[in-house]
Design goal:
The complex is a heterodimer of chains A (138) and B (63). Chain A has 138 residues and is mostly helical. Chain A is built from 7 helices and no strands. The N and C termini of chain A lie far apart (65 Å). By secondary structure, chain B is mainly α. Classes of the chains: A mainly alpha (138), B mainly alpha (63). At the A-B interface, helix 1 of A face helix 1 and helix 4 of B.
Chain lengths: 138, 63
């Protein structure tokens, strides 16, 4: 009986060590992934944005004036339009310039009259706010 | 689980007996659950990972 008690104690201690250690490592990975997810676009996000921002009908393209000053106009879907409209102007402009017009960080910074090192931060904030606005109920 | 059964169950679990392995996982379910919380909620993916880790650890455990 004593031996069996010893075995149970040993097994419990062994599993406790293995599970707690493994859990800590996994939690670090999950948290890192979740933090990255906040500021990066997944492939699906990119595809959704592309679908929403691509206008195939040339006639319509001529009619709509979309540029970095009104990035929300790139969206036909009211939900996406509203979500982008709510993003602070400087952030949405930075996102549009970098991701749609594909200008360099230096050019974008010049157009927005800000320092070049702020551009990435603004883009991240724009993505984060855009996602947050999309998740919010209307 | 009666103590004298533990060794037998462990041996069976180590020899790929599913029923024995499930018994052991049930026994350590609280330990698995309590380590599966992320931001105050049980994270199902983490819980599954921990179950896999438990199975792996039981197989490696030297009696």
């Amino acid at each position: 009986m004593e031996e069996n008690n010893q075995l149970e104690k040993r097994l419990t201690a062994y599993l406790n060590k293995a599970i707690v250690g493994f859990s800590k490592e996994k939690k670090k990975i999950y948290n890192r992934y979740n933090n990255e997810k906040k500021y990066t676009l997944s492939l699906l996000d990119v595809q959704i944005l592309k679908d929403k921002m691509t206008i195939n009908d040339e006639y319509i393209v001529d009619e709509i004036d979309v540029n970095y000053l009104n990035p929300e106009k790139a969206f036909f879907d009211l939900k996406y339009y509203s979500a982008m409209k709510k993003v602070p102007s400087i952030q949405s402009k930075a996102l549009y310039l970098l991701e749609v017009e594909k200008v360099s960080k230096a050019e974008a910074a010049k157009l927005l009259h800000i320092k070049e090192n702020k551009i990435n931060k603004l883009k991240k904030l724009a993505i984060s706010n855009f996602k947050k606005n999309l998740e919010e109920p209307n | 689980m009666i103590n004298h059964e533990l060794e037998e169950i462990l041996l069976k679990a180590k020899n790929e007996n599913e029923e024995a392995m499930l018994l052991l996982i049930e026994k350590y379910d609280k330990l698995i659950k309590s380590n599966s919380y992320i931001n105050g909620k049980v994270n199902k993916d983490l819980e599954q990972d921990l179950i896999c880790k438990t199975i792996e650890s039981i197989k490696k455990f030297e009696i």
